[in-house]
Amino acid sequence: MGTKTAKARPSNLPIEFTSFVGRRAELRELKRLLATTKLLTLTGSGGAGKTRLALRAAAEMARGFPDGAWVVSLGSIQDPLLISQAVLNALGAHDQSASWSLSTLTDYLASRRLLLVIDNCEHLLDGCAVLASTLLNSCPYVRLLATSRQALGVTGEVRMPVPPMSLPGEGDDASLERLMNFEAVRLLSERAAAVVPGFVVNAENAAPVLRLCRRLDGIPLALELAAVRLGSLSLDQLNQGLAGDRSMLGSGNRGVEGRQQTLEATIGWSYGLLEEVEQLLWARLSVFAGGFDAEAAIEVCSDERLPSDQIVEMLGALVEKSIVKRDLTAGNAPRYALLETIRQFGTRCLREIDEERNGRERHLDWIAGLARSVGAFDSRQIELFKRMDAERDNLWAALEFCLSEPGLAPRGGEFAQHLVAYWTCRGSFGDVRRVLTSLAERAPEDSAPRAQLLLAAAVMANSQNDLEASASLGRESLRIGTHLRDSEVIALSQTWLAIPLSIDGKVAEALEAAESAVALARRIESRPIELIATTVLCNILPVVGQPERAIELGEQGLTISQECGELWARGYLLMATAQAHWQQGERQLAEAKALDGAGCKHALDDRSGLQALLEILAWMAVERGAFQRAATLLGCAERVRQSSALQFQEGFRKQHEHSMALALERLGKRQFDSMYERGLTMAVDAVMTFAAEDKLPAPPVAAKIESKTSLTKRELEIAHLIADDMSNHEIAIKLFLSDRTVETHVTHMFNKLGLNSRVQLTRWLAGISGAGTSLAANDRESSVTGKIRT
Amino acid sequence: MDELSVEGEIRGDDPSSVASGPKASDGQLRFFLVERRLPAISKRGLAMLHAALIETCRRFAARGEQVVYLRSTFVPRQGRLLSLFASGSLDFVRAANEATLAPYTSIEMAFDLPDETEPTPA
Fold this sequence. Notes:
The structure holds two protein chains of two kinds.
Chain A: H1 24-36, E1 39-43, H2 50-61, E2 69-73, H3 83-90, H4 101-109, E3 114-119, H5 125-138, E4 142-148, E5 157-161, H6 176-179, H7 183-195, H8 206-215, H9 220-227, H10 235-243, H11 256-272, H12 276-285, E6 292-293, H13 294-301, H14 308-320, E7 324-327, E8 335-338, H15 340-352, H16 356-374, H17 381-390, H18 392-404, H19 409-426, H20 429-442, H21 448-463, H22 467-484, H23 487-503, H24 507-523, H25 527-540, H26 547-564, H27 568-583, H28 587-604, H29 607-623, H30 627-643, H31 653-680, H32 684-693, H33 700-708, H34 713-723, H35 728-735, H36 739-753, H37 758-769, H38 774-782
Helix pairs in contact in A: 1-2, 4-5, 7-9, 8-10, 9-11, 12-14, 12-15, 13-14, 13-16, 16-17, 16-18, 16-19, 18-20, 19-20, 19-21, 20-21, 21-22, 21-23, 22-23, 23-24, 23-25, 24-25, 25-26, 25-27, 26-27, 27-28, 27-29, 28-29, 28-32, 28-38, 29-30, 29-31, 30-31, 34-36, 34-37, 35-36
Chain B: E1 30-37, H1 43-62, E2 67-75, E3 80-87, H2 90-99, E4 106-110
Antiparallel strand pairs in B: 1-3, 1-4, 2-3
Helix pairs in contact in B: 1-2
């Protein structure tokens, strides 16, 4: 069976794992309608195949849209306020703005030419109507294709009902040849062949096949659920089993409500055929929103009734029975999901066996555990940030559960405590802040969870440039911490409070808060808090004219960061030390540090941090007279901001405007615009390549060292990083290479130099650097640890 | 505002506190003030939100969920948007505001001060 994707254009359309049967007339009609309307809604009962039809049409039409075809599924979203964020996420844009997210979305889409499939709108009709009408009015080149059981009811909407698959009418005893022209029969036949090799519709089974298709009203999902059962049941047994349900009249010609009854009865029948443990697993899996992996299923669903060592096998059985979908494209580990209709049935079953609250609590425990891992600030940071991205819907479902259940608000404090750094990279600041503030209101007064929630809300407010609110929330958190004599809360409150104070020009107060936080973190021996507090303090020190102290403290912070293996704080520490070195006149070192910092932020996909470092690199380029580079980097920074709807950071405005004006004056408008535009149109990966390749040229002495060896420039660069005790993986991240490429370079170096170990390589490097060059010393300093272990 | 509970009901026994508010035939319409914090919203964004509020309330009213959007006031320095609604139900006001996809910080029952210069109906 063929699988198809829309590769020609950017897209997030999923791969089709099963054949697409029939629907030629509908596809033709859909394309015709969508050519002339900006909003087309496919309506029909659950299981009618609206989603599949929309996705197939989108894949086939994607080439006509320069900015691609995209799908956002709203099935797992319950809160209408999260609709805009879901769309932005589906489009690969992080909303880190302080604005109304729908306004951010329209800005993002204003000039884009794309097709957006909005799937599963029925439970959020009012919100989807606002989304659709706003996009119709503000985004002239966007086409919307919605799927919903009901039309959205928006002016300009064209509705296209999706009928059941075609069937011979009652009394039409179609010939065998004609029978295969009917879509329902073909779908049943194809799916049956997948479980019963060689299955074909023939003269012998034509009558029961037709009876089955009619009984299932030609509903695709019902046909699929029935067909997979042919592996263990005969056609007659299937017909007899389904006939037991009075809601299945078997006419094959019923209205929407009748078809809905048929589908629900089929799902119920399918459920009834499962082993008891499989039924239980189905019900328990319904607590997941937006999918899950096997590990999560084990953690959330297993107990003495569902032993953990049998879950994977049971998942496989549910996949075979078309209850669970398996997606192999998400990464190495397969990811699973329930179709929304199937999930809703599972939720009802979970409620009936009185396990809903317990199931949601276990789901909450699982995602809270993942949040704790993210907050550990260790060498898994990149991987865990990506993992949390994949579990975004599950995270929001857990937060909504905390909001909805009395007494669970303090659990939200765990997320606040551990996900602050993650949220500063991903946003969406407004939604996160809203939920955290709501949870704080429900948490016990003067409790540590309330303080943690307020603190995280303060960080989000700061990211929105809402400095007044940020400081106010930070002060309240500090008050609670002081009241509780909770040193961790006090230190963290002082840390985060220092940022809005500093940006707001209250630098003395900011410095005092950050100094106090660092001292307290050291006193209580909390390395993560010391790292964060040091990072904040280091970024304030250059502002108050203390670059030496920033460098000294920065190196201490980088040592902690290196020990942890994390990148988030490291990127900001490198930003601080880069500015401090620049103030000291150590330009090459400063630029190398800023570039390293940008590399950390890029690796984490922390666009807020990345745009800040690109700005700083641009300012450095201006100051050394590299105006073309500066203009391009300024465009790059703007590009990164636009990709995440980031607001311009107020603390950067003055220097930014100065640099823009100077570069414009020196280059002239035409050249400046050309260079700026170049940066503005670069992909984020290309931005990093540009920044790295076009940095301040190394002094001639570098070539001198290189000429003394048989190593290439890249190999020499890797040798220095090995001397700095970095692993191949860390080097790969730093230099934007694959692990395998780094391994190859290392092997070549060993071969060329006749060495066997990294220690020998480090000694060899120390030997050639001992020739006495200032660059070697500088390079050493520019490393993360500044140390060589032998 | 002590007499108002968070549920939008009047505490105490002074119905005259909303006497100047709009009245439905059953006399149950009340004012509700919805506050939003939108520190970075543009004029275009505000116009879009205004349009969404009008459209959503019309939509609600068309299906019998009476909620009337009256007006909004924006305080730029604070990034605060205050929107006034009239409805017989706090739930309708909440649902209509959530449907506009714009988060709010609070919904409070409100009332106008009576205009003393207005002639009293006979």
